[in-house]
Amino acid sequence: TWVFTLILEVFSSDNLCITDDSCTLSLSLSLSLSLSLSLSLSLSLSVSLSLSLSLSLSLSPPDPLQVIMSRKVVRTSKFRHVFGQAVKADQCYDDIRISQMTWDSNFCSVNPKFVAMIVEASGGGAFIVLPLSKTGRIDMSYPNVCGHTGPVLDIEWCPHNDNIIASGSEDCSVMIWEIPEGGLTQPLKDPVVKLDGHSKRVGILSWHPTAHNVLMSAGCDNVVILWNVARGEAAVRIDSLHTDLIYSACWNSDGSQILTSCKDKKLRVLDPRKGTVIAEKDKPHEGSRPVRAVFVSEGKILTTGFSRMSERQVALWDPKSFDEPLTLQELDTSSGVLLPFFDPDTGVVYLCGKGDSSIRYFEVTDEAPYVHYLSMYSSKESQKGMGYMPKRGLEVNKCEIARFYKLHERKCEPIVMTVPRKSDLFQEDLYPDTVGPEPSVEADDWFAGKEGKPILISLKDGFVATTKNKEFKVIKSLMSTTSASMKELREMVEDLTKRVTELESKN
Predict the structure, then answer these.
(1) Do 372 and 360 meet the contact criterion of CB atoms below 8 Å apart?
(2) H/E element holding 314?
(3) Domain boundaries along the sequence of the chain
(4) pLDDT in tens, 297-325
(5) Contacts of 106 (CB under 8 A, 6+ apart)
(6) Cα end-to-end span (Å), the chain
(7) What local confidence, expressed as pLDDT, does residue 81 receive?
(8) Long-range contacts, stretch 300-303, CB < 8 angstroms, 24+ apart
(9) Rounded distance, CA 138 to CA 115, Å?
(10) CB 27: neighbour CB atoms within 10 A?
(11) At what angle do helices 2-12 and 41-58 cross, to 10 degrees?
């Protein structure tokens, strides 16, 4: 009788919350009653009390603030479901002997017309240039570009002329080549321009994004040279800032600044024409292995490097406040250098590690933690190098936002990055106006101080070259007279002009 009285008091208690789940409550209490009849009095009381306590907790309403916070855990992004896919085997470039050099460059450069890859060559350095449509097995007798006397370390297509490519080599020279329409039909040995100025091997090349015929090169002599290619001369020579090997060098979006990373563990933002330091950061990453750096949106800088424990890291910096990184994330413990490729139109950065078999991609935003992991493309075979297609070379009707050209031991495999969309219409949010091939300033004007912003084009109907490539003009007299200096040539012209004037006055 006393037990039944206690159960009735529990039912009538004000602390018991009765909601729409009253059927579940009565079932649980009846279970406690059956247990109390078969067990001792003390045990039945403990079982009944514990059940009533658990019911009161489970029936309490959820906190609305917790519900709102839980919905904000997943960050919305239209690039969250970007997926990478390798093309079919018949669309790859097979039977190509990729260079075995251990230099940390891309080994591949691509534009809407051609793909170029550094290959093994006997008796010097060479690279192969193929039209994009020439897929399948490449015959061993296919002609190469083979003018260097040492292994080629880096190649870079000109952004303003799809037929012009630059190459840097262990023979300390930089050469400019003009590839005929349709590709090579015979080996190309004579460059249009040969640029001599480095005392050690040249491992980094980068064309100016907006100025025509301006090329930057960096060598193992710790020197950065800005070339006026059309004149075949070094216009700016930065040789006193870097005290050790230069790991990477790149331009910002309008070419008004240069960013370098160096073995002396310093990150430098330079004024290219003055050759002075605008900002400097010591030890962006604590590890001793190579650091790579690129400009991203709004002038910020993204770096990849290593920690003291040799863990690979990615960090984002604001050059206005270089003391602490905006974010610093550890990725893994692999030893390959991460090559960053940034897409300013989408804000997505792709990290491709040499020797890795994967491509990670992140979105760079203004919200903490600023660098948001999106996904990863993985394959079975590791990559020896990577080429990155400019945005104007993509297929916009297939929602393709990036395309990589992955180098294997014996082939080149295109990898397509796609945003899944149901509609076949042009996706304006994926393809804002992007940088076109037209330069905004000439080399002489840029070196004189004139700035040039990128000229943007729309990809709504796909990229179509409405005008011929920007003509590559070279002052031939300068190229043929390699022993004469610029001053001597000017004096020669002045003397000839005086003689002509005198002869005309006599007549």
Answers:
(1) no
(2) strand 312-317
(3) 2-60
(4) 989 999 999 999 999 999 999 999 899 99
(5) 154, 339, 385, 386, 387, 388
(6) 144
(7) 87
(8) 300/326, 300/364, 301/259, 301/267, 301/269, 302/340, 302/342, 302/349, 302/364, 302/371, 303/261, 303/267
(9) 13
(10) 9
(11) 10
Question: Hunting for tokens 């550094």 — which residue is that?
Answer: 118
Taking each helix axis from N to C terminus, what angle separates 22-38 and 41-58, rounded to the nearest 10 degrees? 170
Q: How many CB atoms lie within 10 A of CB 417?
A: 24
* Alpha-carbon dihedral sign for residues 316, 319, 320, 322: positive
Residue written as token pair 């990155």? 388
Compare 22 and 248 and report the one with higher pLDDT.
Answer: 248
C-alpha distances (whole Å) from 308 to each of 244, 288, 311, 339, 349 are 20, 8, 7, 20, 24
* pLDDT confidence band for 367 (50 / 70 / 90): confident
pLDDT at 271 over 70: yes
Q: Round to whole Å and give the CA distance between 276 and 221.
A: 18
Is residue 493 scored above 90 in pLDDT?
A: no
**Residue found under tokens 């015979």:** 186
Q: 334 with 353: CB under 8 angstroms? A: yes
Hey, which residues does 338 pair with through a beta bridge?
Answer: 353
Backbone angles phi, psi at 319, to 5 degrees: -60, -20
- Helices and strands of the chain, counted as H and E runs: 7, 34
Task: Using the CB atoms, write b or e for 302-320: b if 16+ within 10 Å.
Answer: bbbbbeeeebbbbbbbbbe
Q: 3-class DSSP state for residue 298?
A: helix
Looking at residue 23, its pLDDT comes to: 37
The identity of residue 233, as a single letter, is E
